[in-house]
């Protein structure tokens, strides 16, 4: 049998693991079972692209994920390349077949009510570290900066009078991000206290109790801690706050091009994923509110 010869080739010549070979066997057996149910006269030689496409559709309709379908299609593609190489077939029916695109997961974000509860509540201490932590969470939420961008901020990057921060993003590309009066007030309080404690020598904006620049790990952990006070969702990272910023901006009628610049995206297509998020929120609201939804 061709399939057995192919599996032996994977084992002996390609040195595939037993587990991988068995996965190939299962995928090929699944396809063979399918096409024989469609037409008992079909064989590996007489299969055409339409049969392969119909198989893909049947898997998607049965609830298989794009990842599973693509894996099975990959096994079939490798098998037919082997048959062509052996000159056992003349035409590869999988050659022009495109697998289904994987759905990009929607960004995880917090509701505005959750952020209001966190930032307006009494979750942060009144000491230096508490003020610093509140400022950090606010900065993520108000500016949408990335984790590395926040920890890389220096004192001179913050213009209190102009209400902007200079952010150094990916590939050292710099951008200017504005902020409002609430963040300005928190910044002034934090900087005053930092100065009184003699922590300005290093130049880093966000520092620990020793005056040393905060690490990404430290900031990630403290954000996770505070977000856990207002949400039960598993993802509670600084990037969730970046998503929250972007979603809030769009919900309050910011245009995509402006949001792209604020986030430091290279392409508008990257920013467009947030439109899907706001649309999902709109659908949820519709389903809850409309009597016939």
Structural description of this entry:
Residues 105-287 form the Tyr recombinase domain. GO terms for molecular function: DNA binding; tyrosine-based site-specific recombinase activity. Belongs to the 'phage' integrase family. XerC subfamily. By secondary structure, this protein is mainly alpha-helical. It has two domains: 2-85; 112-289, Orthogonal Bundle (hpI Integrase, Chain A), CATH 1.10.443.10. 57% of the residues lie in helices and 4% in strands. The chain has 13 helices and three strands; from the N terminus they run H-H-H-H-H-H-H-E-E-E-H-H-H-H-H-H. The chain has helices spanning 2-12, 18-38, 49-61, 66-85, 112-120, 128-143, 147-151, 181-196, 216-227, 238-251, 256-263, 268-271, 273-289, and strands spanning 158-159, 164-168, 174-178. It has a three-stranded antiparallel β-sheet, with no helix packed on it. Helix 1 (2-12) runs antiparallel to helix 2 (18-38), helix 6 (128-143) runs antiparallel to helix 8 (181-196) and helix 6 (128-143) crosses helix 10 (238-251). The protein is elongated and about 85 Å long.
Write a compact overview of the structure shown:
The chain has 293 residues and is mainly alpha-helical. It contains 13 helices and three strands; from the N terminus they run H-H-H-H-H-H-H-E-E-E-H-H-H-H-H-H.
- What pattern of helices and strands is seen along the backbone? HHHHHHHEEEHHHHHH
Structure summary, number of beta strands: 3
What is the radius of gyration? 28 Å
Number of domains: 2
Structural class: mainly alpha
CATH class division of the largest domain: Mainly Alpha
* Residue runs with pLDDT of under 50 for 5 or more positions: none
| CA(first)-CA(last) distance | 55 Å
CATH topology of the largest domain: hpI Integrase, Chain A
> What's the helix count?
13
Provide the helix percentage: 55-70%
Task: Estimate the global geometry from the Cα principal axes.
Answer: elongated
GO biological process, one term: cell division
Domain Core-binding (CB): 1-84
Keywords: Cell cycle, Cell division, Chromosome partition, Cytoplasm, DNA integration, DNA recombination, DNA-binding
Organism: Paraprevotella clara YIT 11840
